[in-house]
Every structure is written in structure tokens, then in C-alpha cells.
Design goal:
- The complex is a heterodimer of chains A (110) and B (113).
- By secondary structure, chain A is mostly beta strands.
- Chain A contains no helices and eleven strands.
- Chain A has strands at residues 4-7, 10-14, 19-25, 32-38, 45-50, 54-58, 61-66, 71-76, 85-92, 99-100, 104-109.
- Chain A is globular, with a radius of gyration of 13 Å.
- Helix content of chain B is 0%, strand content 50%.
- Chain B is built from no helices and eleven strands.
- Chain B has strands at residues 5-7, 10-13, 19-24, 31-37, 44-50, 53-57, 65-68, 75-79, 88-95, 103-104, 108-112.
- In chain B, a hairpin with a 6-residue loop joins strand 7 (65-68) and strand 8.
- Classes of the chains: A mainly beta (110), B mainly beta (113).
Chain lengths: 110, 113
């Protein structure tokens, strides 16, 4: 049974800061790794995803995957108040069932 | 982008009654899911569905729960009878391949009183 854990549970950063969110998983055969963002009262929406080891950058967001360490992360450069949300990491593999972490609640204050 | 539609957005129901949550997944997607989320907390997997069949159910998917997608229409989650602990937001989601991005609906907030 896949276990997905996120850290920290919550984070408060000032506007302009670098934010780092972490996710660990238990199944080394996992194939797809993604970050979702959920604003209060809204549906989660995929932010970024990665399939293989390494980094991928899209604008202010960078996702980093290290399968050997069973760890991936999301880094937000120049954090903005609009980035404030619940961030969920998701991992899926051959069971076609994305498993989500409990989430990191991010608050970026002006 | 692709949209998953959920009806209704809110539902209040008396304990013991039946409720059906409806989902219109993205048209060319093959994998469908129901997730349960309480108070903005963890998105918990309930069930996935492919090719007209349930693939996997979690322990949260009680005997009172059932899913179906008759003739390619709405993908439904039925709870009969409902219990107080069923109060939550239920998200429907769909995916083209099952191992890529999952697209969520806006959720149905179910309150059992």
C-alpha cells in the first residue's frame, strides 16, 4: 500500500521568499509524480508533474525528483500572496490510483 | 482545459436516506475516481473505475457505497443508507490513462443531518 507523506504541514513565508515543499513515497515502482494546488473551497488542480529523475522548471516553479531517495519536492521562487493554498503531492504507479499526501498549507503574506 | 462536472454542488440529507452524487467526466477519459475530503484535509481515495468495472476500493468505500456508469452517462456514487460520518466533500476525477494528470470536478459538499 503506497504511503505518501508531506512536510511541512504548514508554512508561512513573506512575499518574495523561496518556498520548498517536500513529499516522500514508499513504492519504488511509482511512475508519476505530481503537485496539485487547491485554493480554499475549490477543486485541486495539477500544477506540475514529472516522470523521471531530475528537475523540471516552469516559470517560478521547479519540481525535483529523486527516485532512489523516494523523495520529490516543489520549489516556488519569488512566492506571491496568490500562491497561498493547500499543496497536495500525488504519486501513482501501476495501480492507476493516484495517492495523495495530507497537504501543506502555504500562506504567503505581503 | 478539460472539465469534470459534478452535480449537485451541495446536498443536505437526513441520516439513513439515500443520496446519489453525479459526475460528468471528461469525454475521452478512461479512468474515473471518487475521492473524499473532510475540512480541506487529505484527499482520500475511495474507488477507481475503468471499462465499466471497479478496479480498486479503499477501506473507506463501505458496503453502503456503490458506483456505476450506465451506458457511458454520468459516473455516480450512491450511498445507501447515509451516516453522519459520510459528511464531507466528494470529488469526482477522471484521467486519460490512469497514470497521468487527474482532473477534478469542483466537488459535492454532502451534509448528513
Amino acid at each position: 500500500q503506497q504511503k505518501v507523506q508531506q512536510s511541512p504541514e504548514s508554512l508561512i513565508v513573506p512575499e518574495g521568499a523561496m518556498t520548498s515543499l517536500n513529499c516522500t513515497f514508499s513504492d519504488s515502482a511509482s511512475q508519476y509524480f505530481a503537485w496539485y494546488r487547491q485554493h480554499s473551497g475549490k477543486a485541486p488542480k495539477a500544477l506540475m508533474s514529472i516522470f523521471s529523475n531530475g528537475e523540471k522548471e516552469e516559470g517560478r516553479f521547479t519540481i525535483h525528483l529523486n527516485k532512489a531517495s523516494l523523495h520529490f519536492s516543489l520549489h516556488i521562487r519569488d512566492s506571491q500572496p496568490s500562491d497561498s493554498a493547500l499543496y497536495l503531492c500525488a504519486v501513482s504507479g501501476g495501480n492507476y490510483k493516484p495517492t495523495f499526501g495530507k497537504g501543506t498549507s502555504l500562506v504567503v503574506h505581503p | 482545459g478539460p472539465k469534470v462536472l459534478q452535480i449537485p454542488s451541495h446536498q443536505i440529507i437526513d441520516m439513513g436516506q439515500m443520496v446519489t452524487l453525479n459526475c460528468d467526466p471528461v469525454s475521452n477519459h478512461l479512468y474515473f475516481y471518487w475521492y473524499k475530503q473532510i475540512l480541506g484535509q487529505q484527499m482520500e481515495f475511495l474507488v477507481n473505475f475503468y471499462n465499466g468495472k471497479v478496479m480498486e476500493k479503499s477501506k473507506l468505500f463501505k458496503d453502503q457505497f456503490s458506483v456505476e456508469r450506465p451506458d457511458g452517462s454520468y459516473f455516480t456514487l450512491k450511498i445507501q443508507p447515509t451516516a453522519l460520518e459520510d459528511s464531507a466533500v466528494y470529488f469526482c476525477a477522471s484521467s486519460p490513462t490512469g497514470n497521468t494528470e487527474v482532473f477534478f470536478g469542483k466537488g459535492t459538499r454532502l451534509t448528513v443531518v
